[in-house]
Amino acid sequence: YCSWACFLRLKVIDTTPPAVVIHSPEAQGIYYSQFQNFRIKATDDVAVETIWYSLNRDNNITYYSMVSLAFAKGMNTLQAWTRDTSGNIGTISITFYISRGNFITRWDTTNTASNTSAENQLQLPLEPTGVYDFLVD
Question: pTM for the whole thing?
Fold first, then answer.
């Protein structure tokens, strides 16, 4: 003898696409070094299966972890996709600009307020994981 519970099967179907975010470079950012750290993060309510990306609509490349890439001068487009274990796909696309010209700044040694130049020093908000190029003439 089997009750009605013997015949009841419940299958939950995952229809929610995974979320994908490009953390760096930032959308609409302007960068003065062609080398930029490239970092993607994907999340899903079940499980992420794979992540891949394309730079300037070129070949798709599987993404595993943060990498430093050399981007072309001018406007660049990064598109990233992620697929979860149910086959749902999430996507994002960003553009940013690489200016390989010299970055010019004026140091005013008479302005000694917070985060400005002083007589003999310059305070810069550097990140431990950042890449910085300086040209002093």
Answer: 0.66
Which of 2.60.40.10, 3.40.980.10, 2.60.40.1180, 3.40.50.300 is the CATH number of 19-98?
2.60.40.10
**pLDDT tens across 23-82, in order?**
999 999 988 888 999 999 999 999 999 999 999 999 999 999 999 999 999 999 999 999
> Can you give the chain as a three-state secondary structure string?
CCCHHHHCCCCCCCCCCCEEEEEECCCCCEECCCEEEEEEEEECCCCEEEEEEEECCCCEEECCCCEEEECCCEEEEEEEEEEECCCCEEEEEEEEEECCCCCCCCCCCCCCCCCCCCCCCCCCCCCCCCCCCCCCC
